[in-house]
């Protein structure tokens, strides 16, 4: 069963701004005419109620949004990159794999979250004309689109979950009380992925019910289908614990004990979840005897006697479950201090730390608050500090930006109060 998926996402890069000139042939000084690059596409995740598993994404290593096209002459914008919307099932949690931060918890139909923001397109040279320089050779590069490693986890969103050993009749129960059509058969592990359905009571109340693959001894350590789906059970408000009373295959008292031990072994909070204990297959001729034996072991336990086959006793179970679910919902409401937290990932576009301006022939200026602050703190007449400073500028990409803008060996570069020589 696939409910944990790793995925790389890369939003589109912004297109580079254009360096272009108006009527360049006949009017060499016709002014800068380069348009902006297009924005890179974003990556969104949205609830798709037609999806019930993450299987579709299993072999998808990475998802990429479109890059923005470069700006063009005549001040024309480059085309924006295409957004990507990834449809995922209800109950999908999206984490940043690098630090495990929860980026989004998709719990409502229709929910849609922006996970990776495309880079903004770079500005064309038309934006960089100043009184002193009406022919800027510089245009901004596009911003790099955000890239992230994600971990997707699906946790089923059901109010109630049917649990028990294999073949006790969980799927049969689900098929009787909802429109779900799970596979039913008399061999163990017929159900390998939870099925989900909606129970509608005659009084218009209702809840979401899921059957689970059968649990066996050692499930909490991974035996059988083990761990994989125990995580789903954590999200259920109520557990409907189904026991097979036909006595042909199982000893229900033992089963009951083992299952509870496995729940606690996986997560102590599972032990505390309200449970409705259901004695199924009461239509079987020996069921009465088996039930008597069970009751001797657990005299104080409320047991609902049913037959999923003949539908006997089913409504009582549904009403009892509904009752418990409503209580759980109320308790959640009371415990909720602030309005429910909706986790939406906020992307802060990274502003470039500096810009480069042409200041006339072979003369450039680096405009940057950050670099100015740096300059004010160091003594550039000292060789070691000057060397350190040059290395910092290079690391910040200043050299490359100057070169891209057209600076060549020996050009003057104004940085803060200093004038330096450009070295390619
Ligand atoms: N006699 C009788 N048989 C039942 C009853 N409920 C289910 N069965 C039978 O028990 C067998 C197993 O039923 P399932 O509903 O597939 O059991 P499950 O608990 O979902 O099993 P897994 O998916 O393998 O964990 C099937 O042959 C059913 O027809 C019942 O109330 N009475
Ligand atoms: Mg089943």
Q: Name the CATH architecture of the largest domain.
A: 3-Layer(aba) Sandwich
- Quantity of strands, as a count: 18
In the predicted model, the low-confidence regions spanning at least 5 consecutive residues are 338-343, 345-349
CATH fold assignment of the largest domain: Rossmann fold
Question: Could you walk me through the main structural features you see in this protein, from its secondary elements to its overall organization?
Answer:
This protein is of the alpha/beta class and 424 residues long. It folds into 3 domains: 1-154, GTP1/OBG domain (Spo0b-associated Gtp-binding Protein, Chain: A, Distorted Sandwich), CATH 2.70.210; 160-335, 3-Layer(aba) Sandwich (Rossmann fold); 354-424, GMP Synthetase, Chain A, domain 3, CATH 3.30.300.350. Helix content is 23%, strand content 22%. Strand 13, helix 5 and strand 14 form a beta-alpha-beta unit. Guanosine-5'-triphosphate binds at residues 164, 166-172, 184-186, 188-191, 211, 213-214, 280-281, 283-284, 307-309.
């Amino acid at each position: 069963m696939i409910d944990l998926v790793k995925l790389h996402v890369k939003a589109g890069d912004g297109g580079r701004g254009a360096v272009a000139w108006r009527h360049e042939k006949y009017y060499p000084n016709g002014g800068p005419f380069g348009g902006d690059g297009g924005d890179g596409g974003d990556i969104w995740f949205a609830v798709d109620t037609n999806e019930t598993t993450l299987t579709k994404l299993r072999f998808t290593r990475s998802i990429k949004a479109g890059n923005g096209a470069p700006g063009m002459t005549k001040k024309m914008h480059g085309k924006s990159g295409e957004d990507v919307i990834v449809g995922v099932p209800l109950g999908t949690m999206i984490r940043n794999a690098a630090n495990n931060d929860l980026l989004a918890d998709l719990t409502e139909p229709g929910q849609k979250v922006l996970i990776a923001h495309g880079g903004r397109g770079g500005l064309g040279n038309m934006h960089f004309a100043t009184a002193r320089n009406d022919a800027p050779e510089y245009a901004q590069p596009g911003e790099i689109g955000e890239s992230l490693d994600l971990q997707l986890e699906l946790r089923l969103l059901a109010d109630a979950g049917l649990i028990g050993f294999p073949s006790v009749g969980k799927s049969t129960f689900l098929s009787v009380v909802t429109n779900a059509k799970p596979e039913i058969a008399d061999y163990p592990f017929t159900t390998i992925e939870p099925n989900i359905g909606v129970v509608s009571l005659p009084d218009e109340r209702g809840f979401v019910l899921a059957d689970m693959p059968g649990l066996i001894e050692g499930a909490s350590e991974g035996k059988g289908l083990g761990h994989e789906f125990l995580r789903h059970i954590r999200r259920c408000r109520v557990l409907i614990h189904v026991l097979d009373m036909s006595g042909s295959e199982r000893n229900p008292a033992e089963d009951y004990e083992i299952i509870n031990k496995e729940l606690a072994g996986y997560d102590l909070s599972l032990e505390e979840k309200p449970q409705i204990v259901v004695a199924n297959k009461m239509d079987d001729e020996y069921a009465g005897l088996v039930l008597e034996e069970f009751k001797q072991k657990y005299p104080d336990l409320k047991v609902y006697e049913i037959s999923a086959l003949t539908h006997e006793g089913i409504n009582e179970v549904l009403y009892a479950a509904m009752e418990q679910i409503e209580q759980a919902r109320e308790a959640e409401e009371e415990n909720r201090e602030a309005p429910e937290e909706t986790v939406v990932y906020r992307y802060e576009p990274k502003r470039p730390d500096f810009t480069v301006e042409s200041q006339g022939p072979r003369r450039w200026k680096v405009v940057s608050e950050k670099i100015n602050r740096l300059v004010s703190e160091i003594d550039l007449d000292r060789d070691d500090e000057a060397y350190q400073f040059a290395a910092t500028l290079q690391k910040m990409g200043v050299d490359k930006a100057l070169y891209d803008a057209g600076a060549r060996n020996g050009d003057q570069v104004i940085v803060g109060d200093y004038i330096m020589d450009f070295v390619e």
